[in-house]
């Protein structure tokens, strides 16, 4: 079997390949609002995977990458059970890309993991990384060369992600994603404003009651910190879906109209 074929069958022991020590899931902890029903999510889909994300115990604080507490501690309802790393890398768009990449990796689709760099918008693919190639900056572009051994291991994948976090961000991710009509919002979509700084939050879940739509949002932020489930001032995790003609206000960022994107 060739290297590319091997890469295509990378499958973790669980769908949450970074390793999890227990924890209830998003779906288990948060019921939909009264009268609302979660939208369907096909088994194995990104949306179903997001609903199954494990959470740290109720009341857990959000920590920064250096072990200090995030300020404020008033915007989150839960902390997702996933590492943040020890460097100031896994910020807002990075957290979104981390979740998407982990789903693909844990689903045996590692060769599909690819994010565009901020400079030229060129893809930074795990397929090339796993084959032993490494990117290096040349002007505002990345140049790849074969400088390492082929390695599609979990440790190599985690190193790849940190490299993505250095070279990609809200500006490149917004361009990589496709606009999504608000009426079609689905778990896994992204509300994003590219910039320096910009911000991005991910739609973790969606519930509907007739024409009414509520969304659950997750984020990392600056500095790099634990991924967490956002809550409104009243503690509710189910936000009204963003209106197409109005700014969309989240606890730490206001997005412009039409900021919804999908993969």
Written account of the structure:
This protein is of the alpha+beta class and 263 residues long. Helix content is 22%, strand content 24%. The protein has seven helices and 15 strands. Strands 1, 2, 7, 8, 9, 10, 11, 12 and 15 form a nine-stranded antiparallel beta sheet that branches. A two-stranded antiparallel sheet has the order 3-4. β10 and β11 form a beta hairpin.
Entry keywords:
single chain, 263 residues, alpha+beta, 2 domains, nine-stranded antiparallel β-sheet, two-stranded antiparallel sheet, 7 helices, 15 strands, globular
Principal-axis shape equals globular
Largest sheet: 9 strands, antiparallel
Count every beta strand, where a strand is a DSSP E run of 2 or more residues.
15
Total domains: 2
Helical amount among residues, as a percent range?
10-25%
Strand fraction: 15-25%
Give the mean pLDDT: 93
Structural classification: alpha+beta
Helix-strand pattern, N to C? HHEHEHEEHEEHHEEEEEEEEE
Tell me the distance between the termini: 30 Å
Q: Unreliable segments (pLDDT under 50, ≥5 consecutive)?
A: 8-13
Query: Helical region count?
Result: 7
Radius of gyration: 18 Å
């Amino acid at each position: 079997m060739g290297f590319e074929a091997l890469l295509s069958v990378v499958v973790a022991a669980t769908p949450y390949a970074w390793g999890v020590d227990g924890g209830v899931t998003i779906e288990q902890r948060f019921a939909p609002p009264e009268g609302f029903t979660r939208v369907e999510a096909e088994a194995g889909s990104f949306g179903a995977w997001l609903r199954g994300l494990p959470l740290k115990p109720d009341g857990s604080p959000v920590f920064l990458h250096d072990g200090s507490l995030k300020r404020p501690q008033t915007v989150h309802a839960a902390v997702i059970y996933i590492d943040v790393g020890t460097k100031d890398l896994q910020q807002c768009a990075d957290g979104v890309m981390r979740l998407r990449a982990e789903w693909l990796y844990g689903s045996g689709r590692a060769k599909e993991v690819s994010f565009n760099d901020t400079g030229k918008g060129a893809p930074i693919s795990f397929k090339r990384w796993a084959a032993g190639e490494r990117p290096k900056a040349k002007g505002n572009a990345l140049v790849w060369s074969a400088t390492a051994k082929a390695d599609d291991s979990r440790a190599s994948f985690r190193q790849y992600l940190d490299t993505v976090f250095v070279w990609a961000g809200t500006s490149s991710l917004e361009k990589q994603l496709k606009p999504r009509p608000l009426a079609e919002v689905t778990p896994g979509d992204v509300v994003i404003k590219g910039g320096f700084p910009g911000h991005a939050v991910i739609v973790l879940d969606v519930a509907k009651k007739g024409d009414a739509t509520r969304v659950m949002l997750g984020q990392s932020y600056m500095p790099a910190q634990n991924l967490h489930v956002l809550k409104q001032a009243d503690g509710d995790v189910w936000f009204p879906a963003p209106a197409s003609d109005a700014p969309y206000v989240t606890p730490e960022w206001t997005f412009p109209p039409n900021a919804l994107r999908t993969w």
